[in-house]
User: Fold these one by one.
Assistant:
Number 1:
Amino acid sequence: MKKRTICIVLLIITLITLLSGCIKIEISTGIDEEYTAFLSYRIEMDADEIDVRYRDILSNALNRIGWHYQEYMDFSVQLDIENNPNVLVMTKKIQNNSFEQAYTALENLLKNEEMTPFMRVDMAFDSNERQDRYIISAETDISQIMRLSNYEELSPALQEQLNNALETGTGTIILTLPNSEIATHSHQINRENNQIIMDVPLSYTERTDFELSGVLNLLVDGSPGGSLNEITHELTRFRNMSIIICAAVVVLLLIILLLTKLPKKRR
């Protein structure tokens, strides 16, 4: 199995950090309202809690991580090491023209072992007229990833230090999708600005998994409609408008026909 880049990120940061609770990692992924598939990492370090001997090493490590993602995986990178906390944000976006295209692009992102920490990703998609049904299920196990890396080559002292840091570090996986009718969800769902957002606590010592399935209803222009009621209302309005237009056309044709059949007045 390939060594995963996210493992390298965790390993570098935790090895140079002796204090607990100063590592925050946020993994954001999903599809926005404009059908852009995205994957983003935000790594936040509290420099004030880090031994002064390691601060330059931390800055250099964050800089090298950002450079690696930017040069080899085409991520946009923002790095702030001048202020506290030190923050590294790395984002990759793929623009698409439809939810179906965006879903495929997201699947390719999440299944790329060099970009994500997910050891299992199951995604399915079914597109019908005015409805897109989908399911996303993924799993990661940071401790297992460590065992598949060069973790065992570390000295016992460093292994213990790393384990202590992982046990107290915090992380979150945030999955965002266009507003949908949710069928199943493994964690809490919030709705904000025509989007659904699921927050998944990321464990560094146990398996982390999540699942989300739903139906995305589409309006006539292809944009997300949100609820079935909106789709039904739009279809009813469209049907009524079509009836009105057809009736108007029929009346106009009858008038034209009658006019053509009227006898012409003799002079």
Number 2:
Amino acid sequence: MRRIINPQSNSLVSEIDHKVLHNFIITKISTEFSNMVQNCYYPETSNIYNDMLHMTNSKEKELLEYSKEKYKDVKYKLLHEPFTTLLILIVQEFLRNKDLAAAEATFHLWSLRQYGNLLHRYTTPRGSRKSICISDAFQTALDRLSKNHMFVKQRTIPNSIIYYSRAIFKIHLQDLLKDNPDGLHLMIYALRTRINQSMRSFFNKYYESIDEGKMSKSEKEGVKEYDPSHEAKLRNFISKIISDICIYNKIDNNAIIQSSSLIKFNKKLSEEYAKQLSSPKFSERLESALYLLLKDIKDTHFIKSSQFIDYVQKLMSIKVTKQQIYFKKIISDIHIEIVNSLGLQKWYEGLSIQSQAISRNFISYYLAFYIRNYV
């Protein structure tokens, strides 16, 4: 058994028994993938995780503190989840013992959790905490998928999850072995993105079948106040933009010129802000910001109108709100991090309130002009 200690607090993080965990994980992952032949099956990864916490004598608080200290330069939220931290520790222990099969199975468990989280997300009506998955609609969606869809090419959903998982595991094997924070961050984001791409297109079909009236009235009652087709299309639209900005580091020079000219912001700083924004560390926050910006817009042609810029200005002018998460707050948090990264804290603090607002607002207008290319 290997004991992992937090060097900062000298407290126990985990106790990993290679043989016990090998048998447990291999059995559990096999069972879960077998159960996924059922339509609308939600993987029981939460129960498995709780069992592993007990088996490794781990506590979520210690896992979180250990991760934040170990990967302190990476602020990607998913990397610091206790579930993720525990799985990384177990994968690395299996690799240390040259147990590739168990290491890969553990990685499949993390992949399965991503699928399960996304399944809950796509089947939970807005404003509700209860997931509603209609088996007939699920099967109809499977039947309607194109031959190029991964769920069809791999014949089943579990086969597709294994395919994605195995591919990402091989690509980032050295990052796991060397415990490379940036590589682990990209590994998590890449796997989540790939699974999500397949699930978005699948749920487009799923909700199309509901909208066409193929389900009974009683089945529809749980989703009648929710516009699922709009939600799925919006998530798909946003994901493409976030990938281009944060993964492929695409900078839109026209958007820089238009936004800096609109609010009379320094062009050189505008370029620096746009470069800083093109980083994986902002992916989750930008995804949330764009969702809040676009969720109430039903006609995408509105994005190319002058009224859309007025709409952005209105969102950035909000002074009081009861909501903990809103567009202006996310933009403000991103802006402060960019200012700090560029070493401009003193410069920013010396600006007038109006000039500070211009500096912050550049990011919102840059995003507004950026997304016009996708309409």
